[in-house]
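In this section we walk through a basic example: taking a raw amino acid sequence and producing a predicted 3D structure, encoded as discrete structure tokens. The instruction is simple. Fold the sequence below.
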Amino acid sequence: MTTMTSLLRAGRLAAFACLLVVAACVAPGNGSRPATPGANLAQLQPLPTSGCSLPAAEGRQTLKFQGASWRYIVDLPNGYDKSVPTRLILAFHGRTGTAEKVRTYFELEGPAARPAIVVYPQAQGGWGGKADRDMAYVDTLLARLKATLCVDQTQIFAAGHSMGGSFVNDLSCGRAGVFRATAVVAGGIGSVRPCQGQVAAILLHNPKDNMVPYSQGIAERDKRIAQNRLAATPVDASAAFRCKRWGKGDIADPVVFCDLPSTFDRKRPYSHGWPDGTGPAITGFFDRVTDQRIQLTERPDAP
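The resulting token sequence is shown next.
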């Protein structure tokens, strides 16, 4: 994608991202998130990694794990400063996708998004087929990234599409304490149980999805709601993708669920895609939970 195309697209989609972020701040009864930290809020200071101050490598890289070479792509934000702890997003491709391919349409980079190190790992035979092995690989990859890049450990996120989304559901359950928030697009039911800890989550699914049933997205949404101990009654979060949010405006780990529209493949409706606006919706949600600056040790009482 050219720089000009990226700028035009960013301008077209920025309004939607702002809508999601702003609407997510509205609590029931037209209340709004306080402008300054209250009693249950605390400014979270960036938590740097050992990679801060080291020269950073960008582009295609490999990591040896369990006798195999695993590929991944590192994209550094413009103006990356090795002394400034920076947001990290891991982006997981689907069953037939590749790290290179999803980089072209996830829209997690660029002028519309906040500066972030975006890493696109390449699976060995598909994400989540061997969930324990793949999660152990993510642990190893994160250790490598923390040791070689200046990462803010309070801002580590994961996003995935299709099978990659199903694997992010595994991470949401089995590695909740590692990620500040996760994003799943058209993902299926994860295999990891029981869930440990809480994690903010946004899940997006097309009601007409004919590859991963909508009911599986609902099941994972309900799992996150129970995992985060949220009340069952949602509030509207955005009209653009018909999003609803579970958790009040000042909650640490809200859950947002959105109905995605169909895309088009050779003029035919496609219900398992990544529609325009999905990337900005995800990064907008990440911005929201970052700006919230909730004391992560303070959790809501069970409903």
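Looking at the output, two observations stand out. The CA atoms of residues 51 and 147 lie 4 Å apart. The chain has one domain: 12-26+57-292. In the next section we compare this with other chains.
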